[in-house]
Amino acid sequence: MKRKDIERILKQGSVRQKIKLYMTDIALVNVDLDNIDDEVRDEELNIKGTKLLSERERDMLWSSIKDPKDIKYYNEIKTWNQSFLWFKDKFSIDLMKLQGLFYVIAGLEEAETVEALRRDLVNEILDLIPDEKTREKALNKAIEYGGKESQKKGYPKYLDIDRSLYWTELKIPTEMAIETAKSCKGYVAMFKILLANKLPLKPYRDWVKAKEKHLERLITNIYKITILEDTPPDFPKIESYEEIGTKITDEDIEDFKNAGV
User: Fold this and answer.
1) Do 46 and 171 fall into the same domain?
2) How many domains does the chain have?
3) Which of 16, 56, 114, 254 has an alpha carbon 20 to 30 Å from 38's alpha carbon atom?
4) b/e map of 186-210 (b: 16 or more CB within 10 Å)?
5) Does position 46 have pLDDT exceeding 60, yes or no?
6) pTM score, whole prediction
7) Is the pLDDT of residue 34 over 80?
8) Cβ-based burial of 91 (10 A; exposed 0-12, middle 13-18, buried ≥19)
């Protein structure tokens, strides 16, 4: 918000505009504590205000809320704000959980990639061994460290990896990621409805927009790792971000609001 717009609302704005500005200032701090404007004075922390308003300006806005209808509007938006903060924390926890699950899934993929590189290296070495008995001994030694014997008709034996073990290890974190992704997108859908109709505060909208982009990247990355040509038919498949459905009812919205009461 531009400084000239803030000064115009402070001087000439309606009480509702002032309440919205006051709540925007609160929202700014709720999404990032770095938005607090402070200083150290005489070895003590002094809060001067925020990056948007000074303490004096905040007091001016607060003192303008006097009429019963304005108090009612303020209490209504305050309730929605408290509800948003309650579910914001729950959403943040789920998003961190999904981030952790992605790290697990990516780590398993990396380990499988290393194993494939080991297989390729062993097979290259096997091709350099002319003696059949020595080659067999080298292959068996390599299998002790993981993998299995593989042979196509008309070709010598080679080292291969058992991909079924990889998919088995990947199954549980993928199932957890699928459920967590659905939960996260449900929160985002609810936030969008709330911020469009009940709590029209830009700091929150910007925060949700940034978190949604992060959520979409996580889901896309998990999708790319787990949806492959050799993905087993019965393996749990995460949907793309666009395919994950959300249905928000009036009852859901009411329950959301009640969390802030």
Assistant:
1) no
2) 2
3) 16
4) bbbbbbbebbeebbebebbbebbee
5) no
6) 0.83
7) no
8) buried
